[in-house]
TrEMBL record:
Matching Gene3D superfamilies: Creatinase/methionine aminopeptidase superfamily, Creatinase/prolidase N-terminal domain
The entry's keywords: Hydrolase, Metal-binding
Species of provenance: Thermophilibacter provencensis
Upper classification of the organism: Bacteria, Bacillati, Actinomycetota, Coriobacteriia, Coriobacteriales
Residues in Creatinase N-terminal domain copies: 10-134
Domain Peptidase M24: start-end pairs: 153-356
Family affiliation: Belongs to the peptidase M24B family.
This protein's name: Xaa-Pro peptidase family protein
């Protein structure tokens, strides 16, 4: 059952934005935004099949017969939303809501596809409905940056599964198995121990493959002395975890230990500097400075971190382009890495919540270099 109080708070935040902008209504079709507003868990899939129409005093949701009963069950009989499955196009339905509510300024989030937007304008014109249709540019994404208590708890639960999976997989890995073998075991463990989905396609990269930050697991065989980069996460009630650990099969070389130490120092220096109000770019540059001073600046080119929530990549970011303050309540990854082509890669990633005083990681797995395959 949806957390009515949490969802009411989210709707109120949207309505405050609407009042500030002078919007009579807002149309939303992006599934993560709808999940956030309605609280209807494990309802949305990859299809764009739903349309919300929000006013200062009304909440309407259009869906179809594939989802209608699920919404009714998840939201309960006394929910604030009016849910229907009228057999009309989403654009026609939205135009009728604009007419019925006498909305004259109807904002459309720019995550809506152009085909819907054009069809909505055509439907309004055909029904002689006069309204302005300003675009909203990522405004809901900005609202979603700040997580409430329910969202944080769901991500903690997702990370508990992810940490447990790390302990399990460390006992499974040995020389002679493939990257794909590790992936299957890791994902099966998560789905068998509390996850209801995977956060994203798992990255397992052994040896030289680890120098490719988003390597896809394949039939490469794990060898003694390999470093293995594992980037993965569990989903729980639509919220995600994100974690990377690099382990060594057998004793690491002096070079592997030295590079791992640089990545760990970069990670921990960044985590120590995070608190509400810091600029994302400044935190990213701390990692750049640590890695550059160690002589590996040419081998760390991606952003330091990103927001996590209903999507695995959300706002805000720790990267070169994020020049805005990081708000308290945002959940962000810290994931520096060093990638040496033809040799190995190392990445160390936690995710956690930004507070007024610091950074509280949800991740509990050790930062030590773990040796596996003994």
């Amino acid at each position: 059952m949806a957390d009515a109080r949490a969802c009411a708070g989210r709707v109120e935040r949207l309505r405050e934005l609407m009042a500030e902008r002078g919007y009579d209504a807002v149309i939303l079709r992006n599934n993560p935004d709808l999940r956030w507003l309605t609280g209807s868990e494990r309802t949305f899939d990859n299809e764009v099949a739903h349309t919300a129409f929000v006013t200062a005093d009304g909440l309407w949701l259009h869906t179809d017969s594939r989802y209608y009963n699920t919404f009714v069950t998840r939201l309960g009989k006394d929910c604030a939303w009016t849910i229907d499955q009228d057999i009309v196009s989403p654009a026609t339905w939205a135009a009728e809501r604009a007419r019925a509510t006498r909305s004259r300024v109807v904002a459309v989030e720019d995550t809506c596809d152009l085909a819907f937007y054009d069809a909505f304008l055509a439907a309004c014109s055909a029904a002689s409905i006069a309204c302005l249709t300003p675009r909203m540019h990522g405004d809901i994404c900005d609202l979603r940056m700040v997580k409430d208590a329910e969202e944080i708890e769901l991500m903690r639960r997702a990370q508990e599964v992810t940490d447990a999976a790390f302990d399990h997989i460390c006992g499974f890995i040995r020389a002679g198995i493939t990257e794909q073998d590790i992936r299957v075991e890791l994902e099966n463990y998560m789905l068998s121990h509390g996850a209801d989905e995977l956060s994203f396609g798992t990255i397992i990269a052994t040896g030289a493959n680890g120098a490719n930050p988003h390597a896809q697991p394949g039939q490469t065989v794990v060898a003694e002395g390999d470093l293995i980069v594992m980037d993965y996460g569990a989903g729980f009630h639509d919220y995600h975890s994100d974690m990377t650990r690099t382990v060594c099969v057998g004793e690491p070389s002096a070079e592997q230990r030295a590079v791992y130490d640089v990545v760990r120092r970069a990670h921990e220096a960044c985590a120590a500097a995070v608190r509400a109000g810091v600029i994302g770019r400044d935190i990213h540059n701390i990692a750049v400075d640590v890695i550059t001073e160690a002589g590996y600046g040419d081998f760390f080119k991606h952003g330091l971190g990103h927001g996590v929530g209903l999507e695995i990549h959300e706002r805000p970011n720790f990267n070169r382009g994020w020049d805005k303050p990081i708000p308290a309540g945002s959940v962000v990854t810290i994931e520096p890495g060093i990638y040496l082509p033809g040799k190995f890669g190392i990445r160390l990633e936690d995710f956690g919540v930004v507070t007024e005083d610091g950074y509280e990681p949800f991740t509990r797995s050790t930062h030590d270099l773990v040796i596996v395959g003994k």
